[in-house]
Amino acid sequence: MSTNKPTSQYGSDPGILSTLRYDLPAGVVVFLVAVPLCLGIAMASGAPLFAGLIAGIMGGVLVPLVSRSALGVSGPAAGLAVIVMTAIQDLGFEAFLLALVLAGIFQAAMAFIKAGIIAYFFPSSVITGMLSGIGIIIFIKQIPHAVGYDRDYEGDIAFLQADHYTTFSELTHMLGFISPGAMFIAAVSLAILILWELPVIKRQRILQLLPGSLIAVLAGIGINLALRAWQPGLALGAKHLVNIPVAHSGEELLQQFTLPDFSQISNPEIYLVALAIAVIASLETLLCVEATDKLDPEKRVTPANRELIAQGLANSASGLLGGLPVTQVIVRSSANIQAGAKTKAAAFIHGLLLLITVFLIPEFLNLIPLASLAAILLVVGYKLSRPEVFKKMYHTGMYHFIPFLATIVGLIFTNLLIGIGIGLLIALLCVLLENYKNAGYYHEVHKDKTTIIRLSENVSFLNKANILQMLDRLPDHSRVVIDASDTRYIDYDVYEIIINFMAEAKRKNIELEIVNLKGYGTLAPPAGHRETASKTKSPDDAWTPQRKTTDKEPATS
Fold first, then answer.
1. For the CA atoms of the chain, what is the radius of gyration?
2. What is the pLDDT of residue 391?
3. How many domains, in total, are found in the chain?
4. What domain range includes position 202?
């Protein structure tokens, strides 16, 4: 009898300790990435900075306890920043928090009506395009931070930025604000990250216990402290460092929390905002779940409805404590996977580190240069959009490659949801085009000049033009058999064409036989219909509707 403990598709494992040597370093990496993202998204949302940290903690500590996503990491998402900012301006921050509490309840309700099934309707080409597009955006957006230009907030993925520059115009505008100190710190951090990927380092067990990202951040802190001591003109100031609010007493810490305004419970605008947050947060989460499962080396599958429940609980808890909306986020999830995480313990560790450091040692976090974090995200972005992905998608065929590219372009020049929508629309058009090119029948001509038309299993209205053109080309005084023995569905438009062709066949003196064509709805099968047929002219020309010939070829329009 085998003594191996089974592992489920949801990522349960024999024990936390067996994977802790992978999950602990990964949790540290995600924690380092998450800190500036939480602060940046809070800034973009017009909310207190502490609200972003609360959302990060709820996403890191609460979600893994309920979710079955093995590698997904949750926190505040940039995709909701505009909605949040508008809601805060229109309702006030306390009323917005009430809407967030209700949004979490709506998400849980969506799970109970099985709305998570929508996750399975996104084509693989679109999800892969989303991953590559996000990777390209991360890479481009981090270049300004790597050279010391930090005016755009961390976590921004939209083409049109809050400072009225675009993703690309920012690259030229940053040239007037380059900081040599930031460039040096970013270069050293990037060199450490690349070095940590080399086999010579990976063979050293002790070094592998220390994440390269942590070493890069510590090096960045050390370099900046050294510059402060010996070259103050090159040292980075507060605007180029992580900036967490510091509470100097318990009373100041309690003031960081904000309670919802429950007196607004009868305000209908609260419910509209709550519904908008619930729908968009759920959609972003489901997209991220699909993408994260795709990146998972073990190919585990996350139960979508269970994830909605976890996210709903986190959003309600975040709203009760004064936080921002929570979703599963691809930037953190992909960083988690690339850091070698094995289970959801890594996500919990990241949340626990956020909780401990924010409350106990915020001063230490405020020493971290954004340039070091930019180096980490540059590597994350490159790995998501590496050239091998483009080559693989190209070799899968144009009907997959075109939606893949469309999704990437849509993401780069718009935002996440619009980009996904563009990719989905192009994928749908490709499906329609592929179905149109599929004639819907096989065309055979036997030695006795009998033309046999075998209809496909599914014949849709997209096949109407091909079948109509083929019937129109049939010569006068010929013999034609239309065999629907294998057909499970035939569109009424095509059925009507066959009925009309019976009259045309009489005018052309075509001997027509129709086999196993079922009536459509209340219509009776056309005259001349036969449930079975078997005609033999000679051993070479034998034909029955049940036999497939080996020399048939799909007809072309």
1. 30
2. 95
3. 2
4. 16-405
Q: pLDDT higher for 66 or 251?
A: 66
Which of 357, 389, 405 marks a domain boundary? 405
Show Cβ contacts of residue 450 under 8 Å, excluding neighbours closer than 6 positions: 478, 479, 480, 481, 537, 541, 543
User: Does residue 229 share a domain with residue 110?
Assistant: yes
The neighbouring-strand residues paired with 490 are: 459
Q: What is the mean pLDDT of residues 134-154?
A: 93
488 phi and psi angles, rounded to 5 deg: -100, -30
Task: Indicate the residue among 405, 431, 453 that finishes a domain.
Answer: 405
**Is residue 6 scored above 80 in pLDDT?**
no
Residue 164 burial (CB < 10 Å; 0-12/13-18/19+)?
exposed
Please report whether residue 432 resides in a domain: no
Share of the chain above pLDDT 90, in %: 60
CATH number at residue 550: 3.30.750.24
What are the pLDDT digits (tens) for 228-278? 999 999 999 999 999 998 888 878 888 889 999 999 999 999 999 999 999
- Residues 384 and 280 grouped into a single domain: yes
* Domain identity same for 156 and 57: yes
Q: Are 261 and 94 in contact (CB under 8 A)?
A: yes
E strand residue ranges, 340-468: 441-445, 450-455, 458-459
User: 554: pLDDT confidence band, cut at 50, 70 and 90?
Assistant: very low
* Nearest residue to 321 (alpha-carbon basis) of 255, 264, 268: 255
Cβ–Cβ < 8 Å for 402, 430? yes
What's residue 447's pLDDT?
62
| Residue 481 β-bridge partners | 452, 513
Q: State how far the alpha carbon of 250 is from the alpha carbons of 225, 244, 253, in Å.
A: 29, 16, 5
| Cα 494 from Cα 469, distance rounded (Å) | 12
Q: Quick check: is 501 in a domain?
A: yes
